[in-house]
Amino acid sequence: RRKNIMSSGGLRISLRGTNGKTVPKLNIRLSRDRKRGGLPDNYEETTWEKLKMTIRAVHSGDSVSFSFEDLYKCVENMVDHKFSENLYNRFEEECKIHVERECEKLVEGIDIDDISFLSLVNSIWEDHCQQMILLRSLFLCLDRKYAHVNSLPSLWDMGLNLFREHIILVDVVSKKLLAGLLLIISKDRKNESVDTSLIKNLTQMLASVHLYSEYFEGQFLEETSKFYCMESEQYLRDHTLEEFLNNVDRRLKEEIERATYIDNRSCDRLIATVEDVCLRNKLPNIIEKGFDELIEKDKGNYLSIMYNLYERVDALDLLKEAWQNYIQVKGKELITDENKDKTLIQELLDFKDKTDRILIHSFKDNDVFYMALKNAFIYFMNERLNAPSVLLARYLSSKMITGRERRAINDNEFETILEKVMDIFKCINEKDVFEAFYKKDLAKRLLLNKSASIDAEKLVISKLKTECGSQFTNKLEGMFKDSDISEEIVSNFKDSVSNPTSIDLKVQVLTAAYWPPFATLNVNIPDEISSVLTLFSDFYYTQYNGRKLRWIHALGQCLLKANFPKGKRELQASFFQSMVLLLFNETDRLSYENLSSGTGLDDLELKKVIKSLALGRVRLITKEPKSRSIEHDDEFIFRKNFTTRKMRLKINQIQQMETQDENTRTQDAIFKHRQYQVDAAIVRIMKTRNHLQHNLLVSELYRQLRFKFRPIDIKRRIERLIEQGYMERSPEERNSYNYLA
Amino acid sequence: MARTKKRKHSGGDKRDSKKRRVSGSKILKMFKQFAGEEDYIGPEGLLKFCDEIGLDPEDIVLLVISWHLKAEQALYFTQEEFVEGLQKLGIDSIKKFKKKIPAFRKDAVDHLSSIFEYAFTFSIEEQNQHYIDFDTAISYIQLLQKNGTHTNDFCEFLKKQTSYKVINKDQWKMFYEFNNTVSNDLSDYDENEAWPVMIDEFAEYLQEKYKD
User: Fold this and answer.
1) Measuring CA to CA, how many Å separate A421 from each of A183, A388, A389, A396?
2) How far apart are CA A718 and CA B197, in angstroms?
C-alpha cells in the first residue's frame, strides 16, 4: 500500500483501519491551480503586460478590460512567486512616467493666470488621488506583503513622493503654485469671491506631500504679516480708532475661520502673526490715537473691544496706565477750574459714575483697573487744597436741608447720593476741612430746625464714623446730644419758674467744644428779653455750677405778636430783626442812626437786617429815600397798614449766604487745630527718637500728618517748641535737635 | 603708699595757694569802693570803675569782664558776682585788673561765640522776657561781629523789618552761626536745613539784594 501524499498543491488523506484491513481510500483533494513551481515560464512578463495596460488605462482614464478579481489574482501570484521587487519597481516607473507627463501639462499651461493654474493643479491632483486609490486596491498584495514587509514606501506614499518630486517641486510649477495660493488667499482677504474649497484642497495636497510647512506655511505667514501690517497702518492713519478696533476684531475672527480652510495647524501661528502686526507693534499708538476720546465720549462698546484685544496680547498694563492717566488729567482739570466751583461736586459725582460704569461694563471690573481708578481719584482730588473739601461738605449739606430740592429726593435716592459722596470723600486727604464746614452747616440746621430728616443726619454720621473713626465724628455726635439735653433743661427751667413770664423761652445749650465757633456780638437787648435770659442763666448756674454761658444772639429767633390796625398777626423773625422792629414800638419813624444806637449792631449786620425788613418780599418798614441800598442818612417808617392773609408770617432772613467772616473763622479754626496736631506730632517724634536731624524730622512728619504743610510752617512750630523748652538745637551735631525731657 | 592721696592733696594745695594769692578782703574793699552803700555796683559805680581801670565804657572788655563775672544784668554787678568772679580770675587790685586787660581782649576773640550768646541774656531787662529789641541787637552785633560777613546786611535787614519787632535767643544764636559759616555768595546755604525762619528770610533778602 502506497502512501500517496501530494506535495505542494494536493492533499491526499489515506485512512487505515486498526485491524489491518484496508479501508477504502478516501481521496480528498484540495485543488489549487498551481503546480509545484508550476507557473508558465513567461508568466511574469505576460502578467506584467496585463498589469501595465491596466495601469496605463487607469492613468488615461480609459476603461479596463480585465476584471478586478483577475487583476487582483495576477498581483497576488506575482507577489507569491517572488516577482514583487520587479513588480514594485516597474509599477513605480509607470507612475513616474505618468506623473511627468502630467507635469508637462502644467508646464505648457504655465502662462495662464494664477488662479486658473491652481484649478489645473487641483484637477491633476484629484485625478492622481483617484487613480492611486484604484491602483492601490488592485495592487493591495504588493503593498501589504512586499512594501510593508520590507519597509518600503506604501504604494500610496510612493505616489505622493512622485507627485511631490515630479510635479510640485518642479521649479516653474512650484513658483507659480505658491504665487497662486498666496494670491487667492489675498483676494479672499480683500473680500473678493474665491473658491475656498480650492484653497482647502490645495493646502491639503501640500500637507499630504509633506510640503505644507517647509514650502508653504512660512511664506503664507509672511504674506499675512505684510498684508495686515499695511492694512492696520492705513487704518491707524486714515480711519477713526473705532473703525480700527472694529477692523482688528473682525480680522481676527476671520482668520480663525480662514484657518479652517487653510490648515488648522497654522491657526495659532496665524493668529499670533495678525496680533503682532495689528496690535503688539502698535500698542502705544493705538492708545494715543483715541483712547481718551473713547472714554470722553463714553463709548463703552469700543472700550470693551479694546480691552479684549489688549488682554489677548498681554498688554493690559499699558491700557491701565492710560486709564489712570486719563482720569488723573481730566479730574485735575475739573477740580482746578475755579470758575466751575458751583457745579464741581455734581460734575465729580457724574465723572465717578461714568468711570465706574466703564470699569464694570468695559473693563470687566478688573481689580488692577479698579485700583488705578481709585489711585487716580486720590491723586487729583488732592491736587487742589481746601476747596474740594469745602464744596463737598456744602453739597452734602444742601441735600440735608428742608426745602424743595430735598423734598424731590426719596430715601433710597438719598442713600445712593450719600454713597457716592462718601466715595469721593474717601479720596480726600484734608478730611478735617470737610468736618469743619459740614459741622458748621449742621449746626445751622440743628439750631434753625432746618434738618430734613434726623435719620438721614444720623446715617451720614455713621458713615463718617465707619470711614474715619469715632474721634472724627465725636463733635458731630456731641451736637446731637446737646440738642437732646437742651430740651430737658428747658423743660426743667419752665417747671422751676414760679411766675410764667410773658415771654415763652426756648434755649439751646451748646457745648462750645463741639460746635463751630460762633461770634458773640454785644448788642442792646431789650429789657424784657434780657430779664428772661438772666432768669434762665441763673437757673442754669444752679444746675451746672462752674460753667459759663455765652449768648449767641445772631442765631436767635423770635415769634412776635403784632397788633396791626388791620388785625393781629404773628411774625417769625430773627432776633436781630425783632430788635429793630421792637424799636418801632415807641415811634413810627426812625433814622439809621437811631436804629444803630438802639440795637448796638455793627453796620454790616444792621444793613443786612434793615434790608430784609425794608426791601425783601415782605416789607414791614419803608425806606426813605427809595433806593436799593441802605445808607447812613436813610430814614425808616413803620408800615402800620401792613396786612397779610397768613396769620403767622415768616420774614425771610438774608443770612443764607455764607459770610466771608464765617468762612474765615472756620478756616482759622482748622488752621489752629492743625498747628496743634503738628506740635503734638513733633513732640511725640522727638520724645521717641531723643535726637533727630532736621530733614529726618520733616520727612517723618510728612509720613504722619494727613494734610499738606509747608516746610516753613514746620520750622515755625519747631522754633516755638524750642522757645517753650520742649526741644533744643543739638550742640553736638549741626542741623539736629535733642528732646528735652 | 598713699601717693594718689598726696597728689590730690597737692592739687588742692595748688588751688589754695592761688586763692591765697588773692585777698578776699581786698576784693571786698574794691567792691565797696564802687558799690557805695548798695550791695551792687550800678551804672554810676561802673563808670567810676571804668575810669579807674582806664577803660572806655563802650569797650568790649567791659562785656568780657561781665561775662567772666556771669553778671545777670548789664550795667550791674552784684556783690556775689563781683567777689566770686574776681576770685576766680585771681584779681584783687586795680593794678591786677589793668594787667589783665590784654588777656580780656584775647578772650573776646577766643571765646567770641560764648560771649555773643551771653550778650543776649545779659541784655534782657525784664524777668520773663525772652527777646531783645532790634536796637540793642544791632549795637551788640556791630560790637561783637564788627568784621562779620553778613553783619552790615543783617543790621540793615533788621532795620527794614516789618514782620518781626524783636529777636529771640534761638534766632540770635543762629545768626552767629550763619554769620560765621555761610559764605558771601550763599553757596553753602541750604534752606532745607534747620535754620530759623527769620534767617531763611534774611537769606532771601540777601539773594534779592545781590541778584546780579
Assistant:
1) 61, 12, 11, 7
2) 10
* Chain segment A68-110, per-residue pLDDT in tens: 888 888 888 888 888 888 889 999 999 999 999 999 989 998 8
Shortest distance between the Cα of B120 and any Cα of chain A, in A, equals: 14
Assigned C-alpha cell, A31: 485543488
Q: Angle between the A660-689 and A711-723 helix axes, to the nearest 10 degrees?
A: 70
DSSP label at B12? H
Could B194 and A712 be called an inter-chain contact, meaning their C-beta atoms sit closer than 8 Å? no
Query: Measured between beta carbons, which residues in chain A are less than 8 angstroms from residue B168?
Result: 719, 723
3-class state of residue A493 by DSSP? helix
Query: And the C-alpha cell for A606?
Result: 444792621
Q: In DSSP terms, which residues pair with A638 in a beta bridge?
A: A621
Contact flag A716-B197 (C-beta cutoff 8 Å): yes
Other Cβ atoms within 10 Å of A501 Cβ, number: 12
pLDDT digits (tens, 9 = 90+) for A570-626: 998 889 999 999 999 989 999 999 999 999 998 888 988 998 888 888 888 888 888
Print the SS3 string covering A31-43: CCCCCCCCCCCCH
Q: Rounded to an integer, what distance in angstroms lies between the CA atom of residue A134 and that of residue A55?
A: 10
Q: Which three cell numbers stand for residue A640?
A: 402800620
Residue from the list A695, A722, A737 with its beta carbon closest to the beta carbon of B192: A695
Sign of dihedral through CA atoms A395, A401, A407, A409?
positive
Note whether A186 and A141 are within 8 A (CB).
no
Predicted ipTM? 0.79
If one counts every other C-beta atom within 10 angstroms of the C-beta of residue A366, the result is: 19
Sort B143 into a burial class: Cβ within 10 Å, 0-12 / 13-18 / 19+.
Answer: middle
Give yes or no for a contact between A392 and A424, defined as CB atoms under 8 angstroms apart: yes
Nearest-neighbour CA in chain B from A662: distance (Å): 26
- Of the candidates A447, A574, A554, A561, the residue with the CA atom closest to the CA atom of residue A510: A447
Nearest chain A Cα distance for residue B195, angstroms: 8
Radius of gyration of chain B (CA): 21
Could you tell me the pTM of the whole model? 0.71
Q: What is the mean pLDDT of chain B?
A: 85
Distance between CA atoms of residues B167 and B173, nearest Å: 10
Cβ neighbours around A205 below 10 Å, total? 24
A616 burial (CB, 10 Å; 0-12 / 13-18 / 19+) is: middle
Asked whether A181 and A199 are in contact (CB, 8 A), the reply is yes
Is the four-CA dihedral A159, A165, A170, A175 of positive or negative sign? positive
Q: Are A90 and A53 in contact (CB under 8 A)?
A: no
Cα–Cα distance for residue pair A171/A670, rounded to 1 Å: 89
- Nearest-CB residue to A723 (from B168, B192, B195): B168
Cα torsion angle, A614, A620, A622, A626, sign: positive
Which chain B positions have a beta carbon within 8 Å of A712's beta carbon? Answer: 197, 200
Which residues, at least 6 apart from A680, have a Cβ–Cβ distance to it below 8 Å? none
Residue type for B148, please? Answer: G
Angle at CA of residue A105, ends A103 and A110, nearest 5°: 95
Q: How far apart are CA A110 and CA B117, in angstroms?
A: 109
Asked if residues A653 and A612 have their Cβ atoms less than 8 Å apart, the reply is yes
> Whole-angstrom Cα distance, residue A667 to residue A669?
5
Cross-chain residue pair B193–A711, CB shorter than 8 Å? no
Q: Do A695 and B195 touch (CB under 8 A)?
A: no
Chain B partners of A699 at a C-beta cutoff of 8 Å?
A: none
Bridge partners (DSSP) listed for residue A67: none
